[in-house]
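User: Hello! I'm new to structural biology and keep hearing that structure can be predicted from sequence alone. Could you demonstrate with NAD(P)-binding domain-containing protein? Please show me the input and the output so I can see what each looks like.

Assistant: Of course. The first part below is the input, the amino acid sequence of NAD(P)-binding domain-containing protein. The second part is the output, the predicted structure written as tokens.
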Amino acid sequence: MQLIVAGASGYLASEVIRQALSHPKITSVIALARRKVEAPTGTDGSKLKSVIVKDYDFYGEDVKNELGEAGACIWTVAVTPSKSKSMDFDTVRKVCLEDTMLGLKTISEARREGVESLRFVYVSGAAAERDQSKKPSWMPEYSLMRGETENRILDFAKNHNISPCIVKPGLITNGGILKGAFAMVMKWTGMVGSVSIQDIAAVMLEDVVQGINVETLENEDL
């Protein structure tokens, strides 16, 4: 299986790539990012192809051609809660929602003959609220937008032969060290718990390799 990892230069994506390159059932990894991505030390670099985009709102024909054989994608592109505080919300929405939907549409349409179903794993967050009639107590605009993104992915998947999975982690840890701005992230996740970066990467890879059976994975499922 060929796997696309979008946002490949990021924190979580780097661990996904490290494990994917060692997975016997993953034949190649397309590392989609805005800069060149190198294979982690000790992994099989021959399985990695770094594909560079200027941004996630445009895909040239050369990039689309690299995506056509993929049977799965793990999408990690987003603006974190802490970073969103210093950005215009329209920009945050563009990156988290609009660019995600364009990426999903582009990958879906790029599929070549013989590549039928696409497994699409989207990394969201524990506090993302799908019920748009609610008002979350903290960062309501951000949390509702992330929930809207989840809804849009699930709706798109129904009509495009895509098997989706929304992953909703709490705090992602690495050897006991919390990543990011502690107070901001802890509030946004609602203190729902944590998951190690190694565990969440492994669960997502098993989903794309073995097949997606559950559309939503909460933090406790990871």
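User: So the tokens describe the shape?

Assistant: Right, they're a compact way of writing down the 3D structure. Reading them back into a model, for example: The chain has one domain: 2-221.
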